[in-house]
């Protein structure tokens, strides 16, 4: 039986003035497009409930504007929801004080961004150690921990270099190392590999799966690339216009897409390898991806 780490319960997020009024309209069945046209209310999350289990890579996938990033950012409360609740380790996020939230983000929930967000004047080692520095870990200890993680991601050789001396793929490894160094309970990754070229992107996906095979972490991973989702996701949630349309393993979604929107994601890609790979490798194994191409929509 899987153990729940994150539980999202009837979550709404509406951007724009007077979100509470928008909620009342939504509950009476108003069309979000009309609410935007009439009141400039943007319904980013529209009644979302789901759970993320310990040890899984939970992927959020959907078209641009479907609400993926907003949902990810409500998990660590960089964005406060308009309504609903998120439970982390059984505790309601809305009940945390600002200080508790900051501590939680530093110790329990790390985030990796598309833009790498490295500090340009600090070495790779100090960048990897930055989360530990914020968490108050002393310099020798944080360098020891950061070095161990740099070894895991294959960057020990460049620990004394500055970020600009590295390729984009290597810079994103530093971003990942920084997130992993604090040994978080939950890793939030927002289009983390989307700025990389296809080869580096594939390498980062492989690295993530290798790290996961060594030690299962819990990840929520946002992407708009369905092949990336199929390749790395233990389970995938497909989002459309602020709603979760379907949740399942790659195989479940491929075998029984919930609607035409979901089916559209698979047009032009060879889904058979993901179904077969799932049978061979199990939830955390490497899918066979020989000849797979990037399919971004
Ligand atoms: N700060 C904001 N103010 C107003 N509207 C916003 C804000 N942030 C997001 N939105 C709107 O909320 C909706 C969901 O946006 P979100 O960025 O979560 O989608 P996404 O699926 O992550 O898209 P992308 O792949 O383009 O990043 C969009 O309609 C967007 O315009």
UniProtKB/TrEMBL annotation:
InterPro entries: AAA+_ATPase (IPR003593), ABC_osmolyte_uptake_ATP-bind (IPR051921), ABC_transporter-like_ATP-bd (IPR003439), ABC_transporter-like_CS (IPR017871), P-loop_NTPase (IPR027417). The keyword ATP-binding applies. Residues 30-266 form the ABC transporter domain. PROSITE patterns: ABC_TRANSPORTER_1, ABC_TRANSPORTER_2. The keyword Translocase does not apply. Keywords: ATP-binding, Nucleotide-binding, Transport. GO terms for biological process: response to osmotic stress. It holds the Pfam family ABC_tran. SMART domains: AAA. One of its GO terms (molecular function) is ATP hydrolysis activity. Belongs to the ABC transporter superfamily. This is Glycine betaine/proline transport system ATP-binding protein.
